[in-house]
Amino acid sequence: MAADREMRPSPSFPFTIYLLIAILLAMTPVVCLISAVDYTEGRGQLDANAEAFQNQTETGILLSMRLVDAGLKLFDDTLDRRMEEGFGPVLAEYERAGRDPAAMNLSRVQQELGEEFEIYIINDSGVIEYTTYLPDLGLDFRGIPYFYDRITGIRTGDTFTADRVVMEHSTGELRKYAYMPSPDHRYLFELGLAASEFKQSRAGLNYQAAAEELVALNPNIEDLTVFNCLCVPITNETYPDDGCRLSFVQEAYRERTTLEVENATAGEQTRYLFIDMADPRHASDMSLVAVLTYNTRAAEEKLADVIVQHFRVLFAVFVLIGCLSVFGVYCLTRPIRTLVEDVETIARGDLGHPIRMSRIEEFAHLERSISAMVASLEGTMQKLRESEETATRYGHTLEEQVREQTADLAESNRMANLYLDVMGHDINNANNVANLYSDLLLADLEGEPEAEYARKAKMGLTRSIEIIRSVNTIRDIQERTPAFRVMDLDRAIRHEIEHFPGLGIAYAGTGVTVFADDLLPEVFANLLGNAVKFGGPDAEITVRVEERGEEVVVSVEDTGPGIPDTVKTHLFNRMVRGGHRAAGTGLGLYICRMLVERYGGRIWADDRVPEKPECGAAIRFTLRKAGSGSGP
After folding, report:
1. Nearest to 541 by CA among 554, 553, 532, 552
2. How far apart are CA 623 and CA 601, in angstroms?
3. Where is pLDDT greater, at 139 or 375?
4. CA distance 244 to 295
5. For residues 289 and 275, is the Cβ–Cβ distance under 8 A?
6. 131-167 pLDDT, tens per residue?
7. Which residues of 167-194 are buried (b: 16+ CB within 10 A; e: fewer)?
8. Angle at 568 between CA 565 and CA 570, to 5 degrees
């Protein structure tokens, strides 16, 4: 029962819910995408219509302004002949005064021309130096760069130049101006004509009135103000933000371009429409700036209505899709529910329960497959029962064979150890006796030619003793269960150095204790023996101990021929010998590696002097520190 509970899947949602969610997830992006595209197109259409309506209105304003200006220009041109004739008395008085403007009787000339005329004499610096209209005396036209350049060109020329009817700087009164250079080009004479009939004749042509007829057709425009070249509104109305508008009007004139300012907080968009009506034949610039204030709230409200409408449509579409999806999922999953009921009945043990067939081809194929699987399952279960009985019989036989072979293996291992003990003991006794007699033989043959043979015999005995010792050490490592304890590293090193009394091995001592066992001296015995054997009779041997954090690094160095780099990587493998002529059995360094790794450290071959193998070898290994102890 516990196994059944572990195999039972955790509670989950029905497949119907997953299928319904999948349909909704698949349809939602499509519906949202269609709605987003429709909204984008609708918004783009609204923006395009608003922009087209705006362009149409502004184009109409431009045309109406230019038409009004064309009519006013025709009226202004009718006064040119009168203005040109008026310069005759002025030039005559200039010649009578000896071309000295200070000696001219301007009052008499004004009486001769009529009281509606004003006379101005502009010097070469662009300043009105003499005039019958005292408010403009001293007026410096250099403050209006484009106008100063125009009148300078007229002064240096030879022709009469008529200007337009414009506002007078001081009073704003309408006045017709014209210019004539003096014969010596030192001065520029200017006549200004102010007549009461100007207002009556020009009343029918009004910039503001012409533009407002078009503005009335655009419900998005809240306000229209027209400014002249002096940045003065041509109507008498004032607005609270005229000071702020004036800076943008001046910028539009200066840049001679249309500006646009958006005020999202107030829901307004102000366009400063520059209307270029400059004429090279006239000194004054008749260009205008029409300030149009659009109300953007209406467009935003329309967009908000579009968004609300889209959300309503989306909600209705989702409700419809949900209803259709529920009905479709119910129809699609009906064969699955029937199949699940039949399978659960079979799973409860009724293998003979029939699978009800569906009219849908895929489900019918699945139901036939399940029926075939159940039939196959019945046959397989029968075979499993038979196989289980056979496996049980074989199992009992196999267990008996394993017990017998394990006992035989244990007996073989015991006998092998016995033979090794006997061989090691007897061979060591024989080696020791032979070694003793070889020493006596060497003493008797000292100085004789046969002494060389005795020495070679002694070397062979020594190597045999080393082999037996190495085999016993390996056997102890493999059979002995590790039982580490705190050991005095200095005592282990000095104990092995004492076995080489005639070499004078350099060792400074240490007070470190390490984790090891009784086999630790074997490491130093093998390393010092190798240093003596391979270093040569003149080699100097040094033992160093360095503390590095939680580890101790021990180095056994010699000044012999060193170890080639090609040998260092596999020097500590079993039965590997160095390239030296005095190479031994290949077990000493292998035993060192086994013991060091047994103690949790590592061992490697190095150069005594870095990157100089010819200066001697160094075998280094690490041990785990156990704490500090007192040295001997």
Report:
1. 532
2. 5
3. 139
4. 18
5. yes
6. 998 888 888 989 888 889 999 999 999 889 988 888 7
7. bbeeeeebbbbbbbbbeeeebbbbbbbb
8. 130
Count other C-beta atoms under 10 Å from residue 70's C-beta. 11
User: Which of 184, 185, 166 is closest to 176 using CA atoms?
Assistant: 166
| Total H helices, total E strands in the chain | 15, 16
pLDDT single digits (tens) 2-11: 444 444 555 5
Read off the pLDDT band of 629 (50, 70, 90).
Answer: very low
**Lookup: tokens for 620:** 């280094």
The DSSP call for residue 303 is: H
Which are the contacts of 559, defined by CB distance < 8 A and separation ≥ 6? Answer: 535, 538, 539, 540, 608, 615, 616
Provide the whole-model pTM: 0.45
- In the numeric block, the tokens 């470190």 are attached to 512
CB 529 within 8 A of CB 604: no
Q: d(Cα 416, Cα 473) in Å, to the nearest integer? A: 16
The secondary structure of residue 233, as a DSSP letter, is B
* 584 HSE (CA, 13 A, CB side): 25
Q: How far apart are CA 623 and CA 556, in angstroms?
A: 14
> In three state form, how does the secondary structure of 563-581 look?
CCHHHHCCCCCCCCCCCCC
Q: Which amino acid, one-letter code, is at 138?
A: G
Q: Residue 269's beta-bridge partner residues?
A: 262, 294
Q: Give the least confident one: 288-292, 401-405, 460-464, 620-624.
A: 460-464
Distance of CA 352 to the CA centre of its chain: 63
Query: What angle (nearest 5°) sits at the alpha carbon of residue 487, between those of residues 483 and 488?
Result: 170
* Tokens coding 304: 């908000």
On whether the CB atoms of residues 513 and 629 are closer than 8 A, the answer is: yes
Q: How far apart are CA 242 and CA 249, in angstroms?
A: 10
